[in-house]
Specification:
The chain is mainly α. The protein is built from five helices and no strands. Helix 1 packs antiparallel against helix 2 and helix 4 packs antiparallel against helix 5. The longest helix is centred in the middle third of the chain and has 31 residues. It starts with 15 loop residues before the first helix and ends with a helix.
Length: 135
């Protein structure tokens, strides 16, 4: 039994992440401008435009960028993506818990971190339950 990975070319998918990057840049620009920070809005918009352009320009040479964009994605990259997402979630949860503890130690309520941690915990529990029922 061979372990070939099947790549499915999807030509339009390569535009999704760069387009979302541009849309996020526009949203950042509008939010920062409404908040009275035009310079920050321009900088954030520029960063997102450069990021989106890099995804398009270097995607032909880089399997990693093609995997991030979603075109020619295979099972191996799907597993890499799943593991990277799990590592990211772990780090974020540890930071949220640490920030909550820090805020409590400083005599504050820790409210924003409490709610983020609670949301993470509830999401995890619901996900486990739903995935368990589906398997």
């Amino acid at each position: 039994m061979s372990m070939e990975t099947k790549r499915v070319p999807r030509p339009h998918v390569k535009w999704v992440l760069p387009s979302l990057s541009l849309a996020a840049g526009v949203a950042y620009f509008i939010a920062a401008t409404l908040g009275g920070k035009l310079q920050l809005g321009l900088e954030m918009f520029g960063i997102m435009v450069v990021f989106g352009a890099a995804l398009l320009l270097f995607g032909g040479r880089s399997e990693t960028i093609r995997g991030l964009r979603g075109d020619e994605r295979d099972e191996r990259f799907a597993m890499i993506d799943l593991r990277a997402t799990a590592y990211t979630a772990l780090v974020l949860i540890l930071v949220i818990v640490g920030a909550f503890i820090y805020e409590l130690a400083r005599g504050r309520s820790g409210a924003p971190y409490f709610w983020l941690g609670a949301l993470a915990g509830v999401t995890y529990l619901v996900s486990v339950a739903v995935l368990r029922l589906r398997s």
